[in-house]
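Input record (one chain):
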Amino acid sequence: MSPPALRLDATASGHPAGILEAAERAEHRGMDRLVVAETAYDPFLQLARAADRTSSIELSTGIAVAFARTPMTLAYQAWGLHAASGGRAVIGLGSQVKPHIEKRFGMPWDRPAARMREYVHAVRAIWDCWQTGERLRFRGEFYTHTVMTPVFSPDPVPSGVPRILLAGVGPLMTRAAGAVADGFLSHPFTSTGYLTEQVLPGLAEERARAEAEGAAWTARPFEIVGNVLTATGRTEQELAANRAATRERLAFYASTPAYRPVLAQHGWEGLQEELHTHSVRGRWAEMAALIDDEVFDTFAVSGPVEDVAREIHRRYTGLVTRLSVSLPEDADPELGLDVLGAVRALG
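The corresponding structure, as predicted from the sequence alone:
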């Protein structure tokens, strides 16, 4: 029996000037979900705006920074989006990194994987209180939520509580996703080899444990979202520009110590060290040249739209349940929809 067809997720920058057009375009093109990351703008606000201009497409953060908020703050933002959209919200969470949490958001950072597990449990406890009317009694190591009076409790949502997807790269956060979330969001800097050998086994083990324990959220299928670095174009010039931008992005990711295990999977630890040295010395212009074609083709898919779609379909069908493509920042967003549409046509 052939694997089920991939569900397709369109991405948008979340810039206020373009979010409505992006949402309408994604729904019109038949995408299953619109995903907005938290960068310069609040994704919940922009997705709430998109909810008023769409009727069927799911609306997801991808990611929202969990530790920038308390579980209660996140619960309210997510519930508001879910209610405004008629139950179409999907909450993608990530931890960000220590300097941003402590020095940008002014929030605590310690034992992030353990904190994230408790964070998700806390959010679920809050939502259960709102949905069922049960008393809120969450006491954990990192968070305590025990007060919820009727005036501060939102109305239940007929479609049920939102799904929570958790992003991760390392084994501890990956396992946390399998243990407590409804799905896993892979990072763009993830090869199929790393996904197969280092990510999926831990996810499966933790998910199986949660199912054996009868965790309520396991009644819903577990999602695995592949996020594919993609360089394509309608002309040779556009393709070349997007390849160059993708090579620069790969160099940035590969210079980051947190992503060293992904390179180690392929025996490229030395490349990570060299790129990191360049980055701390500010030698950004030289870094892209260190990403050779073998590294590029391992982590990215490149070529004309139809060729890219076939290669993505070959690599990811049966490996993930959902798919999004990650284009260079300045690329035409229609290219991503073209690729996803071509993937869908392949079945």
